[in-house]
Amino acid sequence: MYENRKLGLAYLSPYIIGLFVFTAFPFISSFLMSFTEYDLMSPPTYVGVENYRYMLFEDDLFWKSMGVTMAYVFITIPIKLGFALFIAFILNFKLKGIGFFRTAYYIPSILGSSIAIAVLWRALFAIDGVLNGLLALVGMDPINWLGEPSLALLSVTLLRAWQFGSAMVIFLAALQNVPQSQYEAAMIDGASRWQMFTKVTVPLITPVIFFNFIMQTTQAFQEFTAPYVVTGGGPMKSTYLISLYIYETAFKFFDMGYGSALAWSLFLVIALFTALTFRSSKYWVFYSGDKGGK
Question: Taking the model in full, what pTM does it have?
Answer without folding.
Answer: 0.89
